[in-house]
Amino acid sequence: MRRRTVHAWLHLAPLVGGGRNGVKRVAIIGMFHETNTFALEHNDRPDAALKLGQEVIDRAVPKNFISGFVEGVSRSDIELVPIADVHFVHGGLIHADVYDHYVGLIVDGVRQAERLDGVYFALHGAMVAEDPYTDAEGELLHRVRAVVGEHVPFVATYDFHNIMSHRECELLAAAFPNDTNPHIDAYERGLEAGECMLRILDGGIRPVTRVVHVPIIGPNIGQSTWAHAPEEEARLPLYRLNRIREEMERTPGILNLTIQGGYGYADTPESSMSVVATTNGDPELAVRAASELAMHVWQMREDILNVRPIVSIDEGVRMAMESTGERPIVLVDLGDDPGSSCAADSPAVLESLISHGARDCALTIRDPNVVRAGIAAGIGATLEMDIGAAVDQRFYKPIRVRGTVKLIDDGNYTICGPIHGGWGKEVRREAWRSVNVGPRVVLRIGDKIDVIFSMERSGKDRDFFKSAGIIFEEKRIIVVKSNQAHRASFDPIVDGNINLATPGASTVDYASLPFRHIRRPLWPMDTDFTWSPPNVGAS
Questions:
Q1: What string of DSSP letters covers 426-452?
Q2: Count of beta carbons in the 10 Å neighbourhood of residue 19
Q3: DSSP conformation letters of 381-434
Q4: Using 50, 70 and 90 to split pLDDT, how confident is the model at 7?
Q5: For residues 500 and 312, is the Cβ–Cβ distance under 8 A?
């Protein structure tokens, strides 16, 4: 009965559309955050990056979800009503009063908009606020639904690491998460969402969305869906699973079918891999298709865990130093990934590089103290000071270094791509964007180990390094704080990646994290259990 009630607009209400003078009004709402509930830097005050009204469209990132949606619904009888786009800026939990503040702002905007024929949500999907808002996206959709009524269709785009709840699904007409990891199809997914909205408003389809959760938690590095090298791509479990998904998606009645990687650092009951299916008015088909694909995912769980080996820091440094290739090797600092909302302040890999006598290296560490000291001292000055662990000292401690200030800059640079999060594998000038990561200082330590110290943000695209004076042809080792995101940018110019079991709030040792809300058993934290999705036998 609950599904019939929530989806009354699908089965009981007349088809939407055909507003005054034939114009249909579609709201745009963005609320984006990937919440690491174990990160120290909480969103405890209303300092989110906020766009209101027309600037939601005018300042949309090129080739991303919102810009894709806008193009997808571009038609003379569609009036876009941009409400707000909220991006929380700190990696940790969103406090309840802060969450209420921004959701209230959005709801007020929807109420002032009066008549709406549809609502588009640009979401991440792994947003978590303090209790009782653990299902933060679901609560947002619920509050907007209370204003617009049951007959107005909701269409949404999501990140690959979405942790969609059943409640959220039942409030949506259609969901279009990333198919790719690293994420390079946001624009295309926004375009699909826009085209879907038009079909709904024209009365051509009545979508319904369902999700099946798969009890697997990470690791993210095993969830790549593509690679620059065809031979590497072919062996990736998620690449192979996506071939199955693409074939299943051709089934009549299925509008969209997506494998979601989940987000292991958002402590919610839905924090696992999942499959989401959208069909044309057929919830049984949605559950059946999602269940069948979920079983394929479950059967590949060992491959997902083992496709990319993880080694200790010291072993990885030795392997990189022994490399005989002509191009650099990337050491991947998995545990302190800013893309997973970590502080990006760990000096653990630098400490190992120094102790092993490594040379010709480049890496980045967020440390405002070094930036201030470097600016005060000036280019060419020698600094001797403790560096690292400037924000988080739970997993690692500062280390003492001596180095020369090589560069000082304001942190303004252009991301040229290719890059995770908005466009494809090739560099496309129309997707370039200017960013400001805050003041930076480059300190040269030991035998040409260049460390980019940042005040506010670190980077995992090669343009971040290039803009700080790093010449990759001169380097043997590049250290990137990342899991997947750097691959879109770095894989074409390096000889390979070595994944390090580094400490931090994005550790791959999930069992070491103090979860409170996740459902157990959850593989590979638990291994002695069987599982089968709805309508599919156990295996």
A1: S--GGG-EEEE---EEEEEETEEEEEE
A2: 16
A3: -EEEEEES-SS--SS---EEEEEEEEEEE--EEEE-S--TTTS-SS--GGG-EE
A4: very low
A5: yes
In the structure encoding, which two tokens stand for residue 434, read together? 């200017």
Structure tokens at 446: 């030991």
Contact call for residues 345 and 335 (beta carbons, < 8 A)? no
Task: Tell me the pLDDT tens digit for each residue of 166-195.
Answer: 999 999 999 999 999 988 899 999 999 999
Give first-to-last CA distance, the chain, whole Å.
31
Q: Which helix (H) or strand (E) holds 80?
A: strand 78-87
In this prediction, residues 6-32 reach a mean pLDDT of: 63
Spatial CA neighbour of 268 closest among 3, 34, 507, 530 = 34
Listed residue (431, 413, 411) closest to 421, CA to CA:
431
Bridge-based pairing state of the strands 207-214 and 273-280? antiparallel
Which residue bears the tokens 């009354």? 8
389 residue type, one letter:
A
- The pLDDT of residue 46 is above 50: yes
Helix and strand numbers (H, E) in the chain are 17, 20
535 Cα distance to chain centroid: 31
Write the single-letter amino acid at 147: V
pTM of the model: 0.89
Secondary structure (3-state) at 285 = helix
Between CA 259 and CA 441 the distance in angstroms is 41
d(CA 130, CA 100): 10
Tell me which residue of 484, 524, 519, 483 sits closest to 301, measured CA to CA.
Answer: 524
Question: How does pLDDT run across 75-108, given as a tens digit for each residue?
Answer: 999 999 999 999 999 999 999 999 999 999 999 9
How much is the pLDDT for 431?
Answer: 66
Q: E strand or H helix at 176, and its extent?
A: strand 174-177
What's the CA gap between 370 and 350, in Å, rounded? 15
Instruction: Please work out, in degrees rounded to the nearest 5, the angle formed at the alpha carbon of residue 291 by the alpha carbons of 288 and 296.
Output: 130
